[in-house]
Design brief:
Length: 416
Amino acid sequence: MSTNDAMDVLNSTQHTIREALIKMGFGEEMYELLKEPLRVLTVRIPVRMDNGKTQMFTGYRAQHNDAVGPTKGGVRFHPDVTEDEVKALSIWMSLKCGIADLPYGGGKGGVICDPRKMSFGELERLSRGYVRAISQLVGPTKDIPAPDVMTNSQIMAWMFDEYSRIREFDSPAFITGKPIVLGGSQGRETATAYGVTIMIHEALRRKNIPVEGARVVIQGFGNAGGYLARFMKEKGAKVIAISDAYGAIYNENGLDVEDLLDRRDSFGTITKYFPQTISNNEMLELPCDILVPAAIENQITMANADKIQAKIIVEAANGPTTPEATKILTERGILLVPDVLANSGGVIVSYFEWVQNNQGYYWSEAEVHQKLEAILIGAFEKIYDTHLKRDVNMRLAAYMTGVRKMAEAARLRGWI
Ligand code: NAD
């Protein structure tokens, strides 16, 4: 995210938190507590590169609020990481944990780097260096990292190993999103997409649209978008368009999802195989039942909100819709399932992984899915009810649900 975009995203998150607190009768003091993370650590990490020279990398770890319990949230490796972005993402994590009723507050980390231009060895040294730099602040009962954009289970494995060496005991509950053999959970890799699928199901029910034959458009074909396309196809929906950073592929009769998944590279790029594509902007405006932004921030804005032809929008990405666009979409009767609800499947199964690590007893994928469904369907119902009863849009309803637990916990601890 650019510096300005990150600032906009942080400002609009703060604005909505304030609105949610006011609606629930909390005062200005509570807003002052929750508008920023309690702690943000900036670190500089020396990494020996393959050419023998040392390069310095800057990283962050933000802990938004630990009134409910330890903080939890992913680590992003990306050239555009900024402090404001990490702060906003840590606040969103708090909201997601509140919505899913997990015993956590939100945290987030990021390192300014481009993994696409780094060797395997350089990435390993950076991952270990980041853990050494933040080790004082994190731990299984303090702050638990996880994967995010351009970090994966291999990076989690290196981080877990480094932390265990520093602490001198094996500590799988320090980090989630690990490979299964190192204490990862069944269903973690597909959890975000599986959760989005459950949310689509709930939204379709409210709009009386059958899933069989429903037309789905997905922006982004990485971890979230790719598995989502597969799950929707398996449920009988028709995935009519998908995109990557360079363009979109469209077929109104439905795309061959498995073929596209086979051809995709490890960064979710697919359009290089297709000479004729449409633009991302054109794709967002296609007539369809469900539009899923699953790529980056600020994709649905004042510029295109009144041209969107979807009946339902489910935000797999974080922050794809601006507040102004949310207002327009709501006025137009489009049902929007906001990011803090829609993509919380990842953190919920991360929580399951932490629970399994702590108890040393592991669950089947079916068990994970069943528990995930129960939490997400309950959360959807609560937020949809608040949306109708309090006459607020789905995003504000989600924020109201998300801040309630941490605000009450902070009050009971005597912080306010
Ligand atoms: P990813 O890196 O695996 O894939 C990203 C996809 O988006 C790729 O196909 C890429 O080509 C595409 N993309 C990048 N820039 C784009 C642009 N300007 N326009 C259109 N497409 C573009 O990432 P991911 O893990 O799938 O995450 C996608 C979104 O979902 C992010 O907002 C992330 O924060 C959110 N999310 C992911 C998870 C998860 O578990 N993966 C969990 C919660 C939220």
